Amino acid sequence: MGFFLLRSSKTKLIRDRLLPSLTPYENIYTVPNILTFSRLLAAPVVGYLVLHDYHTWAVCLFAYAGITDLVDGYIARRWNLQTIVGTVIDPMADKTLMTILTVCLAVKGALPVWLAAIILGRDIGLGIAAIYYRWVSLPPPKTFSRYWDFSLPSAEVHPTTISKVNTFLQLALIGATTAQPLIAVDISRRDDDHLERRELPVHQGCGQDPVEAGAGAEGGSEEFETLMFVFDGNVARYAV
């Protein structure tokens, strides 16, 4: 009995030492992954900018996230830099940005609470599923440190077409809601300028106050009538 226990412990020891060395590793420090990580770090900054009404900076940073989302995928496909960790952190960055912006816009009252609850419920469910499948597909031995070692490949994440369309629509909604204060300010300024231009001929057309302009017009008509009487020879009769 002791022999079998000793043999099983030696086998386990050898397995724990050999399996990590046989586990394949991949290079995660690629340009697409760096761009994705930068997008992941930008998400809380965008939320902070929205909460403190820095709308211009928030829209610019949101646009940066959208551009890098397109660029990193193109670079990975064009130069064959796809990694398993990239298939995980790319949708993670999108979901993180969506979650933070949804919460911040709902807090500011720009997004209905019920709509924010639907978006958050879906994204939280997808996040839990991703964490579970990462753990299940992690090569043994399964430890906490190895779980967060993203150079260890695990299950690849391939979103469906419906999921891509849904994510695009959500990003379009969140982006439009984030930019709404800027659009509203621009429209109000244009309306004010239009009203000022329409009022210029009335108040400033002749450089006079409307009352003064009317008085001047009245005086001019009286002088014209007086001249007409002079030419008719009826000045004395008009004076009487």
Written overview of the protein:
- The chain has 240 residues and is mainly alpha-helical.
- Helix content is 79%, strand content 0%.
- It has nine helices and no strands.
Brief description of this entry?
The chain has 240 residues and is mostly helical.
User: Roughly what percent helix?
Assistant: over 70%
Give unreliable regions as ranges. 1-6, 202-219, 223-240
- Average pLDDT score: 76
Give the overall shape, derived from the CA principal axes. Answer: elongated
Helix/strand class? mainly alpha
Q: How far apart are the termini?
A: 147 Å
How much of the sequence lies in strands comes to: under 5%
Per DSSP, the total helix count is 9
Largest pleated sheet: none
Gyration radius from CA atoms, angstroms: 36 Å
Number of DSSP-assigned strands: 0
- Elements, N to C (H/E): HHHHHHHHH
Q: What is the strand and helix layout of this fold?
A:
Blueprint: H1 2-22, H2 31-51, H3 55-78, H4 84-107, H5 113-137, H6 144-147, H7 161-203, H8 210-232, H9 235-239
